[in-house]
Amino acid sequence: MRKDFVFTSESVSEGHPDKVADQISDAIVDLFLSKDPEARVACETLTTTQLVVLAGEIRCKGVYENGTWADGALEEIEATVRGVVKKIGYEQSGFHWQTFRFENNLHGQSAHIAQGVDSSSNKDEGAGDQGIMFGFACDETADLMPATLDYSHKILHKMATDRHSGAAPFLEPDAKSQVTLRYKDGKPAAATAIVVSTQHAPGYDEGEKEAELHAYVKSVVAEVLPAELLSGETVYHINPTGSFEIGGPDGDAGLTGRKIIVDTYGGASPHGGGAFSGKDPTKVDRSAAYVTRYLAKNVVAAGLATRCTIQVSYAIGVSQPLSLYVDLHGTGTVTEEALEAALTKVAADRLGKLTPRGIRTGLGLNKPIYGTTAAYGHFGRQPEGDLFPWERTDLADDLKAALA
Q1: Could you confirm whether 244 is annotated as catalytic?
Q2: Which residues contact 9 (CB under 8 A, 6 or more apart)?
Q3: Residues 35, 38, 55, 57: which is the catalytic one?
């Protein structure tokens, strides 16, 4: 593994058009799981100027059965979608939560997919699709995340908090950030470049108002990044194209699942290719990515490595994973082979051998907990109540004991 290098990650705000789509899709997942913990949901969202379109497949007791919607269900879906957009803060002529046109194209889940996923008397519940999933952790931040991504998320989260509170009334919902760090001996040593592009109120692209916006962004960066990483040599690019008044779905179409690197590890880890938002936890694109993060984070939290990548793979309709692979990037205190065996044992004891049902029950994923995941990253968040259970480090002692 290289020790000295320059690396960059980016994030996007809750008002970015793709994130608007992700949040709507996950709000639909939460809605159906709140009605039926065994609901099946695959919901895609398209957003553009004054339009939101839903498409996908569902199965939900009491809401959609035998091709029929329950009374009031369609109205509740639309109210949920408009509520998401309202919460984000879009009240603009090009995209307004009250007036955008809404289309609902959700329909029943394919019976052929269902037969592979559902359990029966002679088979366990199978994976909802084939695929490969990766989990990752490193000791660059307290959240055990790549520093470039962690800081990118936190810059935008702070800006959104200030926008909602009224502390930064000149901000509008759409924004992007990018953090470039120089690493020395594998650790963050200096911020070489910070990029922030934010939608803004009229007039904040010139003169004193532009200076106010720039000063505000630099103050947020100074609050988020450790002081030792910033210096007079740090280059800032703040709204480098100039004006950014037209944003969100009015400025660019948004689709569910187009920010998978933002959602995961900022490019510091491989990605299996599957998005998370809009999918119920029988889809291993989501649940297996969560459990591999859980395992990798516990490896680092246990002091068994400072950097850990885990891959698993599945076949649709098959319950057991096809493979488990661990890479400690030369930072481990144990061998990868020993750790693979320990992870398999601990997973069997606590989660049910990494089967879809074992993951869902072990982590408590059959709950309406996904709306919060859909902006500012699915990983590196603080577990609280039922939220972000894959961020717990309660396996660390079990892993150490299994390797003793």
Answers
A1: yes
A2: 146, 148, 149, 152, 178, 179, 261, 266, 267, 268
A3: 57
d(CA 359, CA 99): 40
Instruction: Give catalytic status of residue 4 as yes or no.
Output: no
pLDDT of residue 115: 57
From 2, 106, 110, select the one nearest 53 (Cα to Cα): 106
In the residue annotation, 258 being an active-site residue is answered as: yes
Q: Which of 186, 113, 134 is nearest to 310 (CA)?
A: 134
214: part of which helix (H) or strand (E)? helix 207-224
Asked if 94 contacts 110 with a C-beta cutoff of 8 angstroms, the reply is: no
350-359 pLDDT tens trace: 888 899 999 9
**Out of 7, 14, 19, 40, which one is annotated catalytic?**
19
pLDDT of residue 123: 56
176 a catalytic residue: yes
pTM equals 0.96
pLDDT tens, position by position, 121-152: 555 677 878 899 999 999 999 999 999 999 99
- State how far the Cα of 174 lies from the Cα of 6, in Å rounded to an integer: 27
- Residue 209 designated active-site: no
Out of 7, 10, 14, 16, the active site residue is 16
Q: What is the C-alpha to C-alpha distance for residues 357 and 312, in angstroms, rounded to an integer?
A: 15
Task: Give the angle subtended at the CA of 119 by the CAs of 117 and 125, to the nearest 5°.
Answer: 55
